[in-house]
Amino acid sequence: MKSVASRLVAVASVLVMIGSGAACSSKATPEPGQGSGGTPAGSSSGGSSSSGSSSGSSSGSSSSGGSGSTSGSSSGSSSGSSSGGSVDAGGDPLAAARAMCVQIINQDRATLKVAALTEASASDEACVDGQAQADYTANVPHAAFGQCSESAQDECPGWPGPPSSIDTSCLAQMWAEGPPAAGQDNHWLNMSNAQYTRVACGFYQDPAGTWWATQDFW
Q1: What is the DSSP string of the chain?
Q2: Contact call for residues 177 and 190 (beta carbons, < 8 A)
Q3: What global pTM score does this model have?
Q4: Per-residue pLDDT band at 60 (split at 50, 70, 90)
Q5: Radius of gyration of the chain from Cα atoms?
Q6: Rounded mean pLDDT of the chain?
Q7: 3 pLDDT higher than 60
């Protein structure tokens, strides 16, 4: 996850957890007086994706103490034809995958009795798709962090797909990180933050057929 403040310090800290070929990172925007939080990058960072040959990251700001960041690449305007979900009435081939992503995050939040997040607007989701694509192009998780005015971001870069499998595998790994040590950040922190009220799940399929999945929190 990543936050606006953490962008100023770039990649101040990095958490890396080697998984079966997958990587994850996270970033967050700290509240005034707080540290920037860790920005995991690399092959698999706490609470990041773990699935063969896939990487993820997340960045975001936790306003309740530490800021957690999970970074992973995911860029807006998904260009993959296989979304892993049915097309909705509006013609979005990724509608089912987006809804599943939100549902999984809310199911996890419910275990802590934290209010559910609402699914962001279609325009926000398109913006997050664009961030996923931009991150892929830069080959740097969270490279486009802040372009959608989000407070935090988690990403699963370079996953084999389909998007539905990323939702179940990558998000599960992020949540499994659990609460970070005092003063540190991770994906779990962004996913569980009670101050966030909505989330947008974006996807981008690169020319090689792998996916970058990004989750922005507001």
Answers
A1: ---HHHHHT-S--------SSEE-EEEE-PPTTS-------SS--TT---STTEE--EEE--SSSS--BEE----SS---S--SS---TT--TTHHHHHHHHHHHHHHHHTTTPPPPEEPPHHHHHHHHHHHHHHHHHTSTTTTTTTT--SEEEEEEEE-S-HHHHHHHHHHHHHHT-SPPTT---HHHHHH-TT--EEEEEEEE-TTS-EEEEEEE-
A2: no
A3: 0.69
A4: low
A5: 14
A6: 73
A7: no
